[in-house]
Write a structure and sequence with these properties.
25% helix, alpha+beta, Alpha-D-Glucose-1,6-Bisphosphate, Chain A, domain 4, 7 strands, 3 helices, 7-stranded antiparallel β-sheet, single chain, globular
Amino acid sequence: MTRSQRLNVKRSVIIDAPIEKVWAVIRQFDAVVDWNPGVRASRLESGAPTEVGSIRVLDIVDGTQFRETLLAHSDLEHYYTYDIIESALSCQNYIATHRLIEITEGNKTLSYWEGDFDCDPAVADELNRIVGDMIYLDAQRALNKYIQELKP
């Protein structure tokens, strides 16, 4: 039996915009295609954009596909939590939360993305880099760029 390791990956970025503006961009589960250049297409397989239980399918620019379920969503607390049903990632039991936190000084937003999943210890460092840097960090940087380019 292959041994498994629980991995926790987190990345954060300060976005130079008020939380309401950032949340308006990311709050719909299928809207990731609007601001994340790593996603070629996004569609809901079932449910509605903010309905818990909705399933989205993401076509990634590298040709892979992700199927994810919206597990929690809060307009009040500015976060959503989802799991991965299917993906090319070598992990299991993946659950992640993308949360926004208001930074009152300067009217900015902290974008905080955290995921937990099981993986083979032999690929843990690689998955930390892929999920943390290539997915979370790159997406948050792209979100910041997208927000800055929006007309006021």
